[in-house]
Amino acid sequence: ASDSATLRCSTERHYVGRCSGNLVDGHLSTKDKCPLVSSFYTSSESGGSVLSRCSDGSVASLPGSLTDEGSWCLDAESLQAKAGNSSDYASVGGVCAQVQCAEGKVKVKYLGGSGFEPCPEGGEIQLTASEHFKDGGKIKCPRYEEVCTVAANGSVLPLQIIGR
């Protein structure tokens, strides 16, 4: 969606933010795309803005997000996340989650999850209603190449040889 209220992932999956502009061929557009996602999140509780990088563990105000050194922004569907300490929920199209990569496979740990779960490319993790998420929803599994070939902070990872 191109609305400016829904939280979503930036293209490189480092940030959760809101749509800050729709550009198609250099012109503003109303198409259902959002190539420009703000890297700042403004909390509805405090009104303050914070840099919304998933790999920054000190960022605790992103609804439905588990931020840490190994966290990436993953696309979500039908997800309503608790917004801070209030009883309000925010519609989110992306959340930060911890990612583990091993032997060509991706595992994901989300906010409130008991541990890392296998997350095969093209698959999804079904969430149930919890203190963090209203009525459940889905986190979409990322491609291995998107989250396992570069560190969550943008630095280069050592070459991993698969199949040995």
UniProtKB/TrEMBL annotation:
Q: Which Pfam families match?
A: Peptidase_M8
Q: Name one GO molecular function term.
A: metal ion binding
Cofactor(s) needed, names only, are: Zn(2+)
- Top enzyme class of this protein? hydrolase
Gene Ontology, cellular component aspect = membrane
Q: How is the cofactor bound?
A: Binds 1 zinc ion per subunit.
Which Gene3D superfamilies does this entry report, sorted A to Z?
Leishmanolysin domain 4
Superkingdom, taxonomy of origin: Eukaryota
Enzyme Commission number(s): 3.4.24.-
Question: Does the keyword Metal-binding belong to this entry?
Answer: yes
Cite a single GO BP annotation. Answer: cell adhesion
Assigned keywords, A-Z:
Hydrolase, Metal-binding, Metalloprotease, Protease, Zinc
Family to which this protein belongs = Belongs to the peptidase M8 family.
Write down what this protein is called: Leishmanolysin-like peptidase
| Organism of derivation | Trypanosoma rangeli
